[in-house]
Amino acid sequence: MTYCVGLRLSKGLVFMSDTRTNAGVDNVSIFRKMFSWSVPGERVLMLMTAGNLATTQSVVSLLDERSKAPQDRNPSILETPSMFQTARQVGETLREVIQANAMTGQTADSSFNATLILGGQIRGSEPRLFMIYPEGNFIEANGDTPYFQIGETKYGRPILVRAYDPDLSFEDAAKLLLVSFDSTVKANLSVGLPLDLQVYEAGSFRLGKSERITADDPYYQTISTSWGEALTQALNSLPDFEFTSEPTAPR
Q1: What is the pTM of this model?
Q2: Rounded to whole angstroms, how far apart are CA atoms 212 and 195?
Q3: How far apart are the first and last CA of the chain?
Q4: From CA 8, how far away is CA 103, in angstroms rounded?
Q5: Please, what is the angle between helix 53-68 and helix 83-100, to 10°?
Q6: % helix / strand / coil in the chain, to the nearest 5?
Q7: How far apart are CA 67 and CA 59, in angstroms?
Q8: Distance of CA 2 to CAs 25, 28, 112, Å?
């Protein structure tokens, strides 16, 4: 399984992904799930992947080849006129790969499925963030849904719902994501470190700061320990529960 999150902030975009893939408890590997393309001064694109590893690697390889080989540059995500058209192109590539692996056409709930988060900025428009489904269609983040999660989403969602703010600094956004990922890692063995973090500052048209966070990273360990202690203290500070009913007599 996988866990990836893309946040849309006032200052730009923040992405974080885990790196664990597994085909059973005795077959665990590390693979990068975050990828980027850029034309300095003109566009920056970030992609995160969840789902069947062979499918996602094929999609990334196709996008990469079509952006580099002159004879295959059309269609290329480095030449699309807008982020919307880029999302369409990535969605079509995903659908193409899934169908190519099917005997008689593939459906979204097949073993070849994958879901993607695409974000970035092309000169002339604001940064945009999309979630792309196996069928190739997609939705865009907005004021009501300012972030996307893919993969094992349920354990890390509560902290995002409660603490997300569009005006967060990049540093505070990274801290928020680390708490979200730590909660997920502790609850699900299919999500694991290292974690990849990438920041994009709106209007810069270049990749921002990036980090690979390992299990022995001192800051990550501090976040993990401190968050657990803070939850325990918060629970203990709540009013005591009191039973209002009388004990039930045995029958």
Answers
A1: 0.94
A2: 6
A3: 48
A4: 38
A5: 130
A6: 35, 25, 40
A7: 12
A8: 14, 12, 15
State the residue for tokens 């708490």.
179
Q: Please tell me what DSSP assigns to residue 72.
A: G
Element (H, E) at 232: helix 218-237
Q: Give the H/E segment covering residue 14.
A: strand 12-17
Rounded CA separation 94/72 (Å) = 17
Q: Are strands 3-8 and 195-201 parallel, antiparallel or unpaired?
A: unpaired
What does the pLDDT read at residue 71?
67
Query: Is residue 45 within 8 Å of 130, Cβ to Cβ?
Result: no
pLDDT given for residue 69 in this prediction: 67
111 band by pLDDT with thresholds 50, 70 and 90: confident
| Average pLDDT of every residue of the chain | 93
* pLDDT reading at 105 higher than 80: no
Please name the residue that has the structure tokens 């799930």. 33
Q: How far is CA 168 from CA 13, 48, 165, 190, 245, in A?
A: 11, 22, 6, 29, 46
At residue 88, does pLDDT exceed 70? Answer: yes
Return the H-helix or E-strand segment holding 230: helix 218-237
Contact 185, 193 (CB under 8 A): yes
Sign of the Cα torsion 116, 119, 122, 126 reads positive
Residue 163 has pLDDT above 50, yes or no: yes
Edge-to-edge strands, sheet with 128-132: 34-39, 43-51, 114-122, 128-132, 138-140
